[in-house]
Write a structure and sequence with these properties.
By secondary structure, the chain is α/β, with parallel strands linked by helices. It is built from 13 helices and 15 strands. Helices cover 46% and strands 19% of the residues.
Length: 386
């Protein structure tokens, strides 16, 4: 091959290569595909939360894309595992940035969210956590949430117990090492005192001693408590119910959204959850059309699996992002991270989203306004309380 032929071949190869790059994520793709990052536990003790969030978010993304996207933009979800570990969440965030994500839908749990929020603030990236409930998860003006904050859950639980006259003497078992649990209990205790509810036993544990609750159970048993408030996650709640049953403790139990999945956690002992009450924004067995439609779609996509409230929060989170993008008039996915954030955070206080977890609006502090729902477990399913 002569020199001229070699030059022509090289030039043709360069043109073909450039065309290949353009078709695999070049200018056209950057303008029409918006990447949304997600972070949560896909492995470890709280993996059911992260998996549910990923599934719920992906279902919403698929529905939106099938309907034409958002102002012509297709959405793409990139979800990373943090094992409910703050440092791993920070690493996951760096990876999502490197891969071109411009919005963070996460993180799933509070401790990682508290760590990552500082980074999204520095980058001025819009962050919407589906289920990070610690108050400071929405510390900055670029951060919003779908779930209730710990403060709201604690005060609402005390108010609900008072309004429904469920008990006047209450025992509490909580995780003092966890911001979710301790945050809920702090405002519960304040509201209970205001309402005249008596806390007759206060039992704390930490992440280093969260399997043996025999002493706590005996303290509750001797306190004369009419109800045990459990502002904790379902794994420890299941152990408490099992050990309380063995100790002959007969009482009522009331918790928050962390108790979701307790029936599955108990397995063969699932009957111990009978009558357990909780405030939760979503129940798959609810009779309203929106919940039934979402549950049917989720089961069809994920092997007949029943969605929990984490899946519902994530589903609503993606549709909230869609509503904010539409309100802000976002029609070009090549917009910078910072410019996108500025438009979305302004839009958030102007939208109303009729989601499966309730009809929501947001204030400038990133907090949603919606009504909590009281549920109790009957025959392994959620039933609305009157």
């Amino acid at each position: 091959m002569n020199k001229l032929a070699k030059l022509l071949c090289a030039g043709l190869a360069a043109v073909l290569m450039a065309g290949s790059f353009a078709s695999c994520g070049g200018t056209e793709d950057s303008a029409t595909v918006l990447k949304i990052g997600g972070i949560g536990p896909l492995t470890g003790q709280t993996a059911s939360y992260g998996t549910a969030v990923e599934n719920g978010a992906q279902l919403a993304v698929d529905e939106i894309n099938a309907a034409g996207g958002v102002n012509g933009i297709q959405l793409e979800l990139n979800f990373q595992d943090d094992e409910n570990n703050a440092q791993k969440a920070i690493t996951a965030y760096g990876l999502l940035k490197d891969e071109g994500c411009k919005i963070l839908m996460g993180t799933v749990t509070s401790a990682p969210c508290l760590a990552v929020k500082d980074l999204t603030y520095e980058d001025n990236m819009f962050q919407l956590t589906p289920s990070g409930s610690a108050v400071d998860c929405t510390k900055y003006d670029n951060t919003f949430r779908i779930c209730f904050s710990d403060d709201n859950q604690g005060a609402a639980s005390a108010q609900y117990i008072f309004d429904k006259q469920l008990a006047s003497k209450i025992a509490v078992i909580y995780d003092s090492s966890d911001p979710y649990s301790s945050g809920i209990y702090r405002t519960f205790k304040e509201k209970a005192a205001e309402l005249g509810l008596e806390i007759v036993s206060e039992q704390a544990f930490t992440s280093s001693n969260n399997t043996d609750f025999s002493v706590a159970v005996q303290q509750v048993k001797s306190s004369g408590a009419e109800l045990v408030f459990l502002p904790i996650y379902y794994q420890q709640a299941a152990l408490i119910l099992q050990q309380a049953n063995s100790a002959g403790l007969e009482t009522q139990y009331f918790g928050c959204d962390g108790l979701d999945s307790i029936v599955q956690q108990l397995g063969n002992d699932s009957q111990l959850a009978e009558g357990v009450m909780l405030l939760t924004p979503f129940a798959a067995d609810a009779s309203d059309e929106k919940s039934q439609t979402f549950t049917a779609a989720y089961k069809a996509k994920y092997n007949n699996e029943i969605p929990n409230q984490f899946a519902a929060d994530a589903y609503d989170a993606i549709y909230t992002i869609k509503a904010a993008m539409e309100q802000a008039g976002i029609d070009d996915a090549s917009i910078s991270v910072s410019d996108l954030c500025e438009k979305l955070k302004a839009a958030m206080t102007q939208i109303t989203v009729d989601g499966v977890t309730g009809t929501m609006t947001w204030d400038e502090n990133g907090e949603p306004t919606k009504d909590p729902k009281g549920m109790y477990i009957k025959d392994g399913s959620y039933t609305a309380m009157d």
